[in-house]
């Protein structure tokens, strides 16, 4: 399809076809949606730009215009999604020189992102308020995410077979396509495939819950389409009833990690449990907590040295 493109083709048309040829069915649908969004921005910012006119200056102008409305990291992602197509156009002889060379990435100053999470007392209060029935419901789901720190899509994909009650472990090896047509999908990355320890309360409760349920079918997925907002609404109702901070399901993941860090669990162990690709991700996400812990460490160091 791309062979039919000439130097005089509009760049956004070239990019649209490049996505269809090289990305469609090769990447996750969520990632594909980001490429399509990038295409819409290219069409908006440079609707009349031809492939042959894509010079370093023209390319930098696209990045600059995009950066006016986005943070630097988002602009960098935009640049990376464009660059693959641009380099192919260079290889095909449609563009003489690489216009992405020495590109300058700008962007709006990022807003300070304050992660919402519960403290130990609030989480204990929330769990006590859950309505744990004999059949699976969203309160069961909230309990599982709070105790494991799983991502929303990972928890949806959990089947009875994933539990090893004898060894007190839970295998996380897939996600559920709740944004699309349903069905199992791979995890976010290789590091997300993991086996985590679960406490005895989860073992006792879930060993009873999954009795008689199909081994290979998701515990929490029925025939109706699942929306993130449905579970968030259920969680919000509990938070309001308990008089505690209102958080989202993803906030429960942050709560899980925060409590482990405050309890003295190493960053490496927390990173593995959360399925982060590297400890750097964990450090960036929970920087405020790590800084608090470092302050406590300084006090501990000084007390220790003073006692020598």
Write up what this structure looks like.
Residues 113-300 form the Tyr recombinase domain. This is Site-specific integrase. GO terms for molecular function: DNA binding. Belongs to the 'phage' integrase family. With 308 residues, this protein is mostly helical. It folds into two domains: 2-91, Tyrosine recombinase, N-terminal domain (DNA polymerase, domain 1); 120-259, Intergrase catalytic core (hpI Integrase, Chain A). It has helices spanning 11-22, 29-45, 56-67, 72-91, 120-129, 138-148, 152-156, 200-209, 228-242, 249-262, 267-274, 279-285, 287-306; strands spanning 163-164, 169-172, 175-176, 184-185, 194-197. Helix 1 runs antiparallel to helix 2 and helix 11 crosses helix 12.
